[in-house]
Amino acid sequence: MKYLLALKLIVLAGILSCSKPERIVPGEPVKVIIWEFGGLPGMQAWTKQAVAGFNASRDDIEIELEQRDWATQRESLISTTILGDGPDIVRVHHKYSVEFGQLGGLYPLDSFEDFHKIKDLIIDNVWEQVYYDGRYYGIPVTMAPFILAINTSILSEYNLEVPETWEDFEELGSFLSERGIHAFTMPGGVNLDTAYRFLPLLMKAGGRVFDQNWTKSAFNGPAGIAALEFLVNLKKNGFMPAASAAYRFDENAAHWSSGKAALSIEGPWWQNATSGNYGFDLNKLALAPVPRPLKKIGDSPSATLLDVFMMSITGYTPVPEYAWEVMKALYVEDPVWRAPNPDLGGIPTQKAAYENGIESDYIGLDVMAEEGKNSVGWPGHPSITEIQRHIADAVNIALVGTMTPKEALDQAAESVNEILSEY
Q1: pTM for this structure?
Q2: Cα(10)–Cα(354) distance, rounded to whole angstroms?
């Protein structure tokens, strides 16, 4: 709690010391500022078009859009929250609902009288990702369940089945390695992509990042050790690329797209990333759940890792009612959110998107939707990005053989426990 108390005092001092320009001027449209962090080119293009259409149709509200780099969202939220001035609406990762909900940097959307109507439109379990201390701090717009991407041409050539368990996975690896093909590839370098490929295996094995009270690391428990041993054994046996411990996202995507590996743990973005950047033939792409161990290892239910992208109103906006109106018009009522579209980089959260008769270009939409029903996100801890880096480091260290999986995870857990003790 030391960190939060200090930051809250800084935020309060910033708010008290800042004077804001008047945003509601009689006879002029009210300006609503949106900062959209990240997004595929298709998502960014849609937003620009939607904003232009909204501005052309209204004379009472004018949207000002700024599209920003995904990696800068936390720093931007911290600085604007401290200053008490910045955008009115932001597109960010769901993990910030806790940190900035606590600090007052995000506005509780259940304050609006018609919030319950919006809530009813969206898949129930997704709301858990934007919830903190009895309040909702964002509208979940798209979600990304982590699934197994399959090059079907490799499996069909040898009449092979998609692995459902880790044991099946290893048998597949043994068969394909004799033919010069990797069963699996993943980014294993010192980057967050590595943590995002380890965690789906941990969760399928019944493991979690923290204990139930968020006071101690749990990723170094039996499920985490087994998941990392599984990955290390794949690499040692030649079932993964020898260079995978240095891969980032792009190197991994290139290796898989070239037909040198059959499987990778990915999400809804994989379809556009591989076809658009590497010319992969999408007729060869299929999706399946991430394999699990034959017997569950951890104490938690087996689950799928889920990322959620939310639209939030900032806690310091001087025009919350106008921002809410813009949010509903662009990110709830627009029909694009009821028609799954690979260009948007995630699958919709609205229930209507999965009704009978909905057509989509998404490959494996039924798999992603089903996996999304039994999903868990990264804990919304204020330091989760730093924690993810420690986990990624541990996976990388074990993959290169500097430490055993247990040693690497225990070392990371020590650092994470120190972080947890500060809250």
Answers
A1: 0.89
A2: 45
pLDDT (tens digit per residue) in 46-101? 999 999 999 999 999 999 999 999 989 989 999 998 888 899 999 999 989 988 98
CB atoms within 10 A of CB 387: 23
Place of tokens 């936390």: 74
Indicate the SS3 state at residue 248.
coil
Instruction: Please name the residues in contact with 139: beta carbons below 8 A apart, sequence gap of 6 or more.
Output: 109, 118, 122, 130, 310, 311, 312, 327, 331, 332
Q: How far is CA 237 from the centre of its chain?
A: 30
* Burial class of residue 2, CB neighbours in 10 A (0-12, 13-18, 19+): exposed
- Crossing angle of helices 384-400/192-204, nearest 10°? 90
Query: What span, in angstroms and rounded, lies between the C-alpha atoms of 417 and 423?
Result: 10
**Sign of the alpha-carbon torsion through 284, 285, 287, 291:** positive
Cβ atoms of residues 314 and 107 within 8 Å? yes
DSSP assignment letter at 94 = T
* pLDDT tens-digit series, residues 241-256: 999 999 999 999 999 9
Please tell me the distance from the alpha carbon of residue 361 to that of residue 85, in angstroms, as a whole number: 40
Token pair, residue 14, equals 């910033």
Spatial neighbors of 381 by CB under 8 A, at least 6 apart, are: 95, 98, 99, 210, 214, 387, 420, 423
Separation between Cα atoms, residue 204 and residue 169, nearest integer Å: 14
